[in-house]
Design brief:
CATH superfamily of the largest domain: Pseudouridine synthase I, catalytic domain, N-terminal subdomain
Shape: elongated
Bound molecules: uracil
Largest sheet: 9 strands, mixed
Helix content: 10-25%
Mean pLDDT: 93
Order of helices and strands: EHHEEEEEEEEHEHEEEEHEEEH
Low-confidence stretches: none
Number of domains: 3
CATH topology of the largest domain: Alpha-Beta Plaits
Length: about 240
Amino acid sequence: MAERLQKLIAQAGLASRRQAESWIAEGKVLLNGAVAKLGDRADLSIDQLLVDGRRLSAAEAKVTVLLNKPRGYVSSLKDPQGRKLVTDLVAALPQRLFPVGRLDYNTEGMLLLTNDGDLAQHLAHPRHHVEKTYLIKARGQMSAGIRRQLETGVVLDDGLTLPAKVGNIRSTGHSCWFELTLSEGRNRQVRRMCDLLGLPVVRLKRVRIGFLALADLKTGCYRRLSSTEVERLKRL
Ligand code: URA
């Protein structure tokens, strides 16, 4: 994705955007061998960008991807038990990405991975209450009472949960399916809330984070977010 040169230089941590603009104006930046002009754009995976003789590599470009995590993957950078890691699924990218938040080993669905520390910090901040929607299959049946408790708050061992939204309830014999939207992200929160209310979770899939939906992204596949999507996430 082509970005303005000053943005790429700032993202690589070489200078502020304003400083980078001055370098461009002073002719210190070369794009594919020619002196760059203000307003030029580059894609570091294709173009050669030299700043004061130093080449910016693709590994320094900020990238955020949306992964449809399969079950049976750990969403941390290492696993003492040697299980598969979500980062294995994005290993083809030149950047080293890290997951934003976690999904349990057996939870599927949407996980963001990035090398953009500002974005990760913004999304992880508890004050921002970014909404996340989960599709749940649970043993038992949803009742009006359980629904009310989910919607008002449940007392877990780490305190009262914020009100959640419940939707799309369906019953299938001994189980039910429903969607739960939370605006906080405590450890194993969905499983703990549902356990407490007598609806043990059988399948759990995150299908939405803020305005981003999983849509038709296949399990184990990822797509790169556009710069507009990343900017929107930073404003959430
Ligand atoms: N809540 C859970 O219980 N598990 C997850 O992986 C995500 C949310």
